[in-house]
Every structure is written in structure tokens, then in C-alpha cells.
Amino acid sequence: MASIETIAAPAATAQDKSISRPLCTHCGARCPDRRITQGDDFFCCHGCLTVFQLLAASGLERFYDLEKTPGIQMNRTPVGDGQFAYLDDAAVQTRLLDFQSDTMARATFHIPSIHCLACIWLLENLFRLNPAIGQAQVNFPRKEVALSFDPRGLSLRGVVELLTSIGYEPTLNLGAGAAPRSRMREERSLWLKIGLAGFVSANSMMLNFAHYFGLEADDAIGRLNGWVNFGLALPVLLYSASDYFRQSWLGLRRRALTLDVPIALGVSALFAQSTYEVVTATGEGYFDSFTMLILLLLCGRWFQQRSYDALSFDRDYRSYFPLSVRRRSAEGDRSVPVAALQVGDRIVVRHQEIVPADCRLRSPEAQLDYSFVTGEAEPVTRYEGDVIYAGGRQAGSAVELEVLKETSQSYLASLWNHEAFRKSRTRNLDTITNRMSRWFTGLVLLLAGGAAAVWLGTDPARGGRAFVATLIVACPCALALSAPFALGYAHRRLGRVRCFLKNAETVEELARVNTVMFDKTGTLTRAGEVVYAGQDLDAEEQRAVRAVAAHSTHPFSRAIAGTSDEVWPEVRRFHEEPGAGIEGEADGQRILIGCADWLHRHQISHLPSLASGAAVAINGVYRGHYQNTPAYRTNIEDLARHLTPAYQLSVVSGDSEREEERLRGWFGPAAELRFHQKPADKLEAVRQRQASGGRVLMLGDGLNDAGALRQADVGMAVTDDIASFAPACDIILDAARLDRLPALLDFSRRTLNVIRLSFAVSLLYNAAGLYFAMRGELSPLLCAVLMPISSVSVVALALLGTRLAERRSGLNRDLGAQAA
User: What percent of the chain has pLDDT over 90?
Assistant: First the structure.
């Protein structure tokens, strides 16, 4: 039911002393008349009525249960027939879509009108309004929604028209530099507000210069100064401080106490008190303090915004995707960072490598695995001339691509965090921080009101100072900054030691693990010497075998291929069956490399009985086999010795028990050793450990361990080639840095302790500030100075503490130095 608001009529008659105007059921605005209705509900415009009808028809009535009048005010005119006709153009679609196939398209829209929980709920339930829309995810801080849809049932134009019809018109940026323009406007507005507050503050202080030295002015001059200061401060209140009032109002409308509420109340009280003194001629007010307070608050907001900008790791895709790519030129193929790619470059993407930018296929055929984008690992076939979207992983022979777009940083960063690979987190520091901030804000309001009430009877001026000072000094901004700064710094430092994290929150998860499980082959071991036995292969056959083996990321295959810089022949029809074998055509010869059972299934006869190794068949004839002597990575014994006191250790291996004695000697009698483990068995081992209360860190090579890596609380892919990894892992660790694992775990625990210390310091600061502010012993201006100082100090503590944790953990020293 719509609520009714009674407004006094400007010229009331004896029969009607008030005019009742209904409030819009959807957005809460006053309805100009009663003609737009449905049942007992009133609407201010046809746009709100349309949204109400859409929601009701789609079973989304719960939208109005989240809060009263949750919607935003709609446009009063419907979407024009040709308003978004340009979105039917294929060139425009190419620029706006992140991904497109026959059955799925993906796009990310910036929607400035997202403002509350109800908006998020509605946008993430768009599939109920149109079944062609798949999953939708809202990034509230960036005011973005990333959604997928079926192009067979809904076009890009249809998606935009649907969003616009329900009041969420997206900002469509077609220019290369258009995306950051909105952000530039916000920064420009903030600087203008700071400039206005600074100008008025300087002039107000100059007018009060004589007063600061105790010089008494004539009463008339004093009153004139008061009114001049009032006139100067008014635009500061209406413009410079407007964000605090607007955000507070939006928060209160959705029944949430945001951090802006006490600040808005504090500056309002200070301005009101100053205005009262000027109007009643009892003083000149505190407009100089008021304008300086706004200036300092805005500077603090600028500092906080810059701080969060520094933590926006999704802008630096290298923190997530440590990729290099082979760029082809007249001089040959060279490995270059993806940041160096330019439109028009030709690149070569090999088997299991990720396409770093939108490209056009220049090879006859490609098999793309888009599990990063769609969550489905089934490869799709693309042909010469087709567009290949960023994030696809080549699942066949190496292909040549022409770069069409520059590398999309935020898009690549989002792929690793795709919903299909996301793990449920029961707790994290962000949730704790937000919860503490909410109850802290309510407590501050209660204490400020109590302080004002205590002093009101004996010293009203002191009560006013206590009220304003309490609201200003007790701001949990420092509390909100400590966790992201410490985690963000740790994220970057770990990247420098070739440990790449999916996101900064993974540091927290890593600090909480109590069980470490290792895969053996490819994790604890590396490929050793490879020996061939069987019929001799001529030079051409050897090149063909090594070329096919080079397409696989398996350590054994890489060992067969060797490390030569020789130019391989082109490989066609490449296919790999994980854990079984690989096949492909090179120099006109069909090559199969794999276990005996796999070759037997491919109709290869006269195979010997092989306990290990890989058999080789050329053109359907068995020719010999490769034997590999795995070598353990350096410092495994020291690694196990450092982990044993603090963690429950396990080794799950697909090999036989022949290495059990050596592993038992390293990992100790309490370690759990499992052999003959298939991928499903490794997954079950992780589940069993979690069921018994373990928080599991699983280390695998990312090939046969994808299920276990995803199931584990933290999955760490240990690989010799950091450009190849499974989407289910949380961490990619350069295999050469495996001996740093104890230092990594110690650093994560110390980082968590630094965050707890930052929380404690922030709470102590607020407690001390509240004590003096409630006693009326702190001026609002001094509190405004202390508030940004507290944020700076807590951030400095978080950064210095994390740097000290890095040093104490020995993260940048070898394991032997750490032990010493």
C-alpha cells in the first residue's frame, strides 16, 4: 500500500484544511495527482507503474519487502523506438561486448543510478524479467553490472532497453578514452569543493584575525563580520558539504547508518549554532572553524579515495595474470609482456595458453576453452577470420592471432574471479569491518546525544562543542582502511616473490589454514632425465615427437620436448587427454605419446608392459617409450621440517608406494601418505580432512588436481610455467619458489596480526578521542584535524607492520637463511 503524506495547503478552506498527496509505491516521490494507480497503489509516473507491473508479473514482489519505496524515480517518458537503434550495428556490439558466442554474450555496464540494496537485488534478478538473461553480478562500489544473455532470445539493444525501462539506463562509452571520464568528473568535483572550502576558510580566518589576538572590535563591525562570514560559509554548506548530506539521506532512506550520518549532523549543528549567534547578535559564530572543518573533512575524503584507488588491483591485471605472450614479427617470435601488446600485433598462442586480448584468428582453426568466461570447459571451434575474445584458452595446436583491442585490464582480472570458480567464504575481514562500522556509528550517535544532554543544563555552549566534537572525532574511517591496506600490501609483496594471488582476501584465507596437502608428481618433484628406449628415430621423427610434446603443459611432456630454442614444425589436430596421453600431426606424421592402455585404445598393438613412462607411436606403429626419473625439488626436507610443528601434513600421489620410505623420513610419522590416488580420490581426501575440522591448503600442479584445488580452502597451483594454470586455484606459485612456502604462510599469519593490531589502535584512538570530546575539551576544528591524522597513522601502521612482517618471516630470504 502506498503511504500518504499530508502537506499543509497554502490557502486552505474551512472545508479542506489539508491536501493529501499519496507517495509513489515504487520510488517514494510525491504523486502530482491520483490518476496513475493500480489497485490501492499510487505512482508518480508511468515509468514507476511499468516497473511495478514488470516486477509483479515476474513474481518479484519481494523487491518491495526489502525496504519501503526502494526504487529510484523513473523517466516520465518511455524508451524511444529508435533511441538505442545504433546498438544493432555489429561494429558497436564488438566494442561493447566482452564475449560473444552463438549461445552466450557477456557485457559489463556502468549504471550510475545504482544506489541501494534493492537496486542490487533487482539487477541480479533480471533473469526473472527476461529468461534470456543469465547470471548478473553487481559491483556496487564501481556501480557496474556484469551480465550474460542468450543472443538468440535477446539482443544487446534489448538488454539496454530493458535496463532503461526499469530506470537503470547504462552509460555506454564507445570512445577509447571515454571510460574514465565519469571518474574524472567526480575528481574534478571534489577538487572544486576543496578549493571553495579552502578559499572561504582563508578569507573567514582573515576576517577574524584580530579576534585571534584578543582584540575587541566595535559591536557593529563584529555583527558585520558575522554576517559576512555567514554569507561566505553558506555556499560551503550547500556545495562543499553536499555529499555528506546526500549520502546520509540515502543511507537513512534505506534504514542504514552510514559513516556520513554523524559527520552531517556535526557540521549541521556547528553551522546552526553559528547562525543562531549571528542572528541573535550574541556572537560572531564559528564559521571559520566550520569552513576549516569542511576543508579538512574533504581532504580526508580525498586521502581515503586515493588510498582505495591504490588498492584497486583489478586495474593491474599483471597482479592476477603474470602472462607473457610470443609476438611474431619479421625478426621471428619473441616473448613479450602482455602490457606491450598493441592493436595490429601478431601473436602466437600455444596449447593451454590464455588469449590476453580480443583478436582475429589468422590460423585455419582454433579450439578455445572459455571456462574462464562461461564456466563451461567444453572447447569451441573457431575458424580463420573469426573474433577470439580475451580470456579464452587454446586447447589445441598453436595458433596465430591479430590483436584487435588493447588488453582489457579489469576484464581479465574479473575472469579468475568468475562465479563458476568462486568458493563460499564463511567470514572475512571486510565483513567484520563493515559490521563493526555499523554498530560503531550508532554508538557514536548515542554518545554524542548523551554528551549534549549532560552539558545542556549547566553549559549549553560546552554541550554544543561536545556534541559536534564527538560526532567528528569518532569516525571509523581508519578502522575501514586498515584491513584493505595490509592485505593489499601483502598481495603485492607476494607477487614479487612469484606467488600470485587471485585477490587480496586470499591472504586472510592462507593465514587460517591448519592442514597442508601436497600432490607429488609435478609439485614435490620436477621432471628429471628423460631416456628413450626402442627403435631409433630419425631426425625428422624426433622433431615431430618433440613438437607434439611441446604443446602439452605436463612436466613429463615438457621434459620430452626439452628446452631447445629450435623452431618446431607446425602441429595440427593436437589433442590431450589429461593423465593419459597426447596426439597430434607434425611434418605429416601422426604422433601418439601416452600410457600403454591409452595407446591400446587407439588401436596400437605390440605394446610392452610399462610400469611407468610414456609409449610412442608414429603413424599407428609403436616405436619405443620414454622413461623419466623424477627429481625432488630442492629443500623439500627443510620445507617439511619447517611445516611439521604448525600444520598437519599430507601427501596424495598417483604413483606407487616405492617413495614411501623417503617421504616418511621427510614428513614425519604423523603425516598422512596416500598412493595410487586418482583425481577423484584427491578431491575426496580434501573433503575428508575438511569434515574433520581442517582448513586445507592444497598444492598441486593444476593438471590432474583441479577438483582438489577448487574444494580446498586455499588451492595453490605449483607450476614451472606460471602462464598456465587451472581456473579453480586461488594462488599460482612459481615452482622454483616452493621452498618459500613456510615463509609465505608465516607472512600471512603475521599480516593478520598486523590487521588486528590496527583494529586495536583505531579503537583506542576513538575511545581516547571520545573521552575528551564528550567532556567538551576538544574543539570541532581540532577534531577535524585529528580525524585524517588517525587515518594516516593507522594506514602507516598497517604498511610498516606488514613490511616488518615480511622481514621477520624471511619472505625475501632463502629457507636456509630463515632457519638460521
Answer: 8
